[in-house]
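Notes, p. 3: input format for complexes.
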Amino acid sequence: MSNQVIFHPGALEEQGGDLVQMGFTCDSCGKTTFPVYELCPFCSSEHGKKAPLSKVGTLFSYTVTRVPVGFYKPPIVAGYIDLPEGVRIFGQIHADVEAVKNGMKLKMETGVIWTEKDGTEVIGYFYTPYAKEGEGAE
Ligand SMILES: [Zn+2]
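Output follows (138 residues plus zinc ion):
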């Protein structure tokens, strides 16, 4: 089995065999942040609860990059996804460029996002179009 690492510490956490994005909901102001900060960026409170974020969100805006960037091959679609918790997450969107529209529903998935030269697989999250009907997983 190859060596695997998560692309950024704290970005994903394992829960019940599943990788989830952990948010932090502040006890003082009630806002949720991602990633988890030591102090609430809205009110500086350090009291709150960590909880997994919703996997399905709504695309706020996106851009398409048509040149290679690092390990990524074009076209690279990336955008801001609004989650029900009030968090706006930046992520790549794995979909046909023509199928991507602002306001569409997207689902967070995890997997290998690039492989280092030494073979280490880097695990991260990305978004794919979410089909409302026939969706049984969540
Ligand atoms: Zn707060």
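The radius of gyration is 16 Å.
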